[in-house]
Amino acid sequence: MTAISKSSPIPPSRQRERPGQQFKWIGKSIKRVEDPRLLTGQGRYIDDIDRPNMLHAAALRSPHAHARIVSIDVSAAVALPGVVAVLTGEDIAKTTGPLPCFANPPVEQRCVAVGRVRHVGESVAVAVAESRYIAEDAVDLIRVNYAELPTVVDPEAAVHVTGDGVLHPDRGPTNIAHRRSFSFGPVKEDFANAARIIQRRLRWPRSGSQPLETVGAIAEYDGGSGKFTIHMNSSMYNYVGWTLALSLGVPAHKINLVPTIAGGSFGSKLFTHKVITLAATLARACGRPVKYIEDRIDNIMACDNHGSDRVYDAELALDKDNQMIGLRCKVIDDYGAYFQFGVGHHGNALSQIVGPYRIRSVDLDIIAVMTNKCQQGAYRGFGSEVANFVIERLADAAADELGLDRLEFRRNNFIRPEQFPYKIPTGNLYDSGNYGVVLDEAMRMLDYTGWRTKQEEYRKQGRYIGIGIATCQERSVFSATEFWMLNNEPGFALTSSPEGVSVKIDPTGKVVVSLQAPFWGNSPETMATMILAEQLQIDPADISITYSDSEHGLAGTGPGGSRYTVMVAGALVGAANIIKEKLLRVAGHMLEAAPHDLELRGGKVGVKGVPGMEKSIADIAMHAHFFRLSMPDDPTLTSGLDAAYTYDHPLTTLPSDDRSDLGIFYPIMGHMCHMPVVEVDPNTGKVSFLDYVAVHDCGTLVNPMTLAGHVRGGIAQGIGTALYEQYHYDENGQLLTASYADYLIPTVHEVPQNVRVGHVETPSPYTEYGIKGGGEGGRMGAPPAVCAAIEDALRPFGVKIDAMPVTPAKLRGLIRAAESLAG
Amino acid sequence: MGKCVISVNVNGKVYERTVEPRMLLSDFLRHELSLTGTHVGCEHGVCGSCTVLVDGMTTRSCLCFAVQVDGQNVETVESLGRIEAMHLIQLAFWEKHGLQCGFCTPGMLMCTVELLRNNPNPDREAILEAIGGNLCRCTGYQNIIASVERAVELLQTKEEAAS
Amino acid sequence: MKPAGFEYERPGTVEQVLAALDRYGEQAKLLAGGQSLIPMLNLRIVQTEHLIDIGRLNELKYIKRVDDVIRIGALTTHNAVMTSELVRQSCPIIAEAYHHVSHHSVRNRGTIGGSLCHNDPAAEMPLVMNLVDAALVARSARGERKIAASRFFGSSFSTVLGADELLVEIRVPSQPAQHGWSFQEFSQRKGDFALVAAGALLTVHAGLCRNVRIGYRNVGPNLFRLAKVEALVEGKAADAALIAQAGKLAMESVEPPSDLHADAAYRRDLVKTLTVRALGEAIRRAGH
């Protein structure tokens, strides 16, 4: 049974490179191109860069969660030797406008607060000095008078707040940033006729990327030309970077954003407008370059990107054959004090809201509410990891209530291989998949039956081990529509999410590829090198990679939503096709052969079937660059050997106007099965890992080693979300986890040491080579899998896990409650 | 605030500088000496990204003032190798995909250096103890463990070849 | 986060340190390993006008045996104490407790004296010193005094040391050859401060527990040894029933704090569980 759809037919595939070819490079686990400079300490991260005559900035941060700024006295700070300027939000607002916001109506946000602070840690004033040390000394001398306002940190309470507790009274009388209901398919009937309805109230905690490198920027302003040059470790500078020019009040060609490599992002460096805008403003104000790097406290308290923070009342309808048919959720999402990406997170989730199951109706009521916390942004999964958690927890509850095996219950509900490409009720498409195979492989790798036997034995010894399961979707390659489609009147209904690349072969035959997107710890250089080496049949050592700044860059959305490898592959195929055509053409002249009789082989172009009759790419390149007159006159043949190509999303359709069909917007659909084995100490609530298998289907793999690296890293972050991490605000909005002493990131001791990663490849029919994205997947499956394992371990106690993080204290509390119930 | 004149041996070269006592060793190395391979992740001693060796012992350089190492020997990641001639430990990390963003990597490498100098054949527990105080947000640690174990092999092979 | 400014000196001898302390009093802070102080300086939780660096006073870095007492110089690093064969043989609970103390790099610089003087309510060494009945030797320009561990520690982050005093030595009595010991700690991550820690020392003669010392960390202000539980166990048969009873009594005898990571009820559970584990292991090790 396929989902009901009123949309237009699925567009045809534009795939040019088929999967399953004999590859020389693709599919190999080659060592990364990026590594040598990183290993030798030669990576140039943002704080490694100095500009002549540079100043340093530090921010004064609000100690109050919600307050009017009554007055700010900077006189003592300004008088400190070494201080060049001290600016308040009001000072900055004279030259710098609000930050870009993707919501409509927008929620006004400034790089430094004006008139009111809305969360603990929001910046109130900034000092610029000869060193960061002096800037912080100056910050200590700034005196601020606040008039406190009512604080709200509970999202359910925030929905009802009125009066002085409203964070943005100019926008409306409540803290509700956006409210929308969606209904797809016959939800009412499915629930009315359901044989059984499973209910679960679930709480997803606020955690965040916390990469080891914070956000930073170094801005320079040339007073002569009115132009900003800004080094920064953010992304999307070749996509929406120009919107920063609007904030700065200059035309977009007067701002050049220069990327540096980033020490991790996981989404949190997606579009870090606060830091960049602030650095630029200060550079213009001071007439000297200004470096502003968040320190760890700045980042924890006031970054652009805390993760999802949601309460779900979720229901699952089952028919008499134990088939999941309907899903109904009410979700309240705590966006914190601002709303930069709108409800894009929920658009994201709607791409795979039914999981890998044949659920045919979906009802979703979304309330995005604002509270006195740092704003939400992106964190690996961008909101769909939460949807995975919800559907998997419901599936576990359903299996348990029906007395069915959790694995087989899922298997019987999977979308079947012959049903692909498969439209889900929301309108999005799943391009390909074979979920039963992934489950089988995970069970085999884990030795599932072996662990079940051990579980029995251990229980007799009074030890509690459990096996968890999560079978989750891992969408990749977003379309821009996800950011605005949940709004019937979007502020800016952009529909492009392209990725460009330029490829240049120099006269000696060496290749330089320019990427339009940054390095974050993903492997863009390795991916580009491998794919281009495959395309041109050349040695990867002959390729080098550079990064275009915004003024030289082509359109490039950048990493995020596990899109980069797929998109850069499309761009490289496009560029390589242009170059190949020219290579064959020039070689044809050199060899006196027709281009259609020629082929690329081993760094050369030669006549098919005639070994030895060939020219090296180096020779051809030299010829192409310098010997135009040796070739026939033809206006279509110009000197040089280069190509630029911009690749658009390979498969998207627009949402319907009434949003009853969200269109195809995130169809390159990976899938995973995670099976952890945990031991729970019921006396202490400690959860330890005995085993962990993760099988991922990301279509055709470019580099299995780097993908497995992402899976393991994502699992570690998922374990962090499940067991350790939370941005914890108390009832007064004070952030109790404001440093790494209390925000607990897992160390090597807290994660499994031997995560076995399996790969299944169900290629996409739509992308080049059938590649699917896989950068986010580990984190998208681990949290429900770990919770399921804990429940399985504690079956004798009847403990249910509905909230995370499952800290030892909380788990012991659940066990204690279960013990006293049992009497 | 009185400045101090210090003399520090960093990677085999002696540097004499006048510094404020409050200047952290991490900032001294990175900005005074332009040795930016040592990274700053938290500046309160938890993440370990800033780890260097002082007189052969791993030290969080954000929890040390430059003045404290006056007259001592400091080793940073820059002492291990260059791109054209990497240390076997660096080659091991490269081979085993022991890094993704590279930010924690210099700290991990210096922990590995100390470990293998004192214990050329460490067991798994010793490896975990050596890197247990260093956070990595990218790799999930497994490949870092594998990298250290590979480094043990490469160094032993080199030892055997030499003898 | 960068620290605020301070004047710095690094005296070369203990006498010079004492003279500096005498001169500056409350306006000075001592910098030993810096692993606790420097984060607080960086975060500007603490500021000081004078920082006196004693981290390289080699005359206070030693471990030696004098009669039945192990004398540890206050500036001996944690790792040096942890790996000392002498300490391991004479007082193995110290080495065992060290497995829970932070991380290797921190222990490379952090000193045992520094930890004791800092007295973080969740730090392990103050508890261990109470369990082994250590004596702490403090010196000032006016002379020297010996302070029992049971009197040395004040409330969180404070000790009885005066502003002009320097802790110079820790004296740990050798434990009897056939004694039992155990140090149990629970923290969320390995190396974090203890949510609760428990330690036990005893000997077993003719099946009965003797010279029982039981103590805890992070279960209440200024609380180390639980006399009630020690009295319960002292002179009784070393069996499972006793252990269970001790755990229950310990749990009922504490009023632990609640904080972000652990509520009071959880801490009580941990007190019970860790008591049972500590006593059980100590009894086993006593050769019973």
Keywords for this entry:
heterotrimer, B: alpha+beta, DNA polymerase, domain 1, 36% helix, C: 288 residues, alpha+beta, Uridine Diphospho-n-acetylenolpyruvylglucosamine Reductase, domain 3, Enolase-like, domain 1, five-stranded antiparallel beta sheet, three-stranded parallel beta sheet
The CATH first-level class of the largest domain in chain C comes to Alpha Beta
* Average of pLDDT of chain C: 96
Integer-rounded radius of gyration of chain C = 19 Å
Supply the number of helical segments of chain C. 12
- Secondary structure: number of strands of chain C: 11
Q: How many domains comprise the coordinates of chain C?
A: 3
Stretches with pLDDT under 50, minimum 5 residues of chain B: none
Global structural class of chain C: alpha+beta
- What is the helix content of chain B? 25-40%
The first-to-last residue Cα distance of chain B is: 55 Å
Could you describe the largest sheet of chain C, including whether it forms a barrel? Answer: 5 strands, antiparallel
What is the CATH topology assignment of the largest domain in chain B?
A: Ubiquitin-like (UB roll)
Global geometry of chain B:
globular
The CATH topology assignment of the largest domain in chain C is Uridine Diphospho-n-acetylenolpyruvylglucosamine Reductase, domain 3
Radius of gyration of chain B: 16 Å
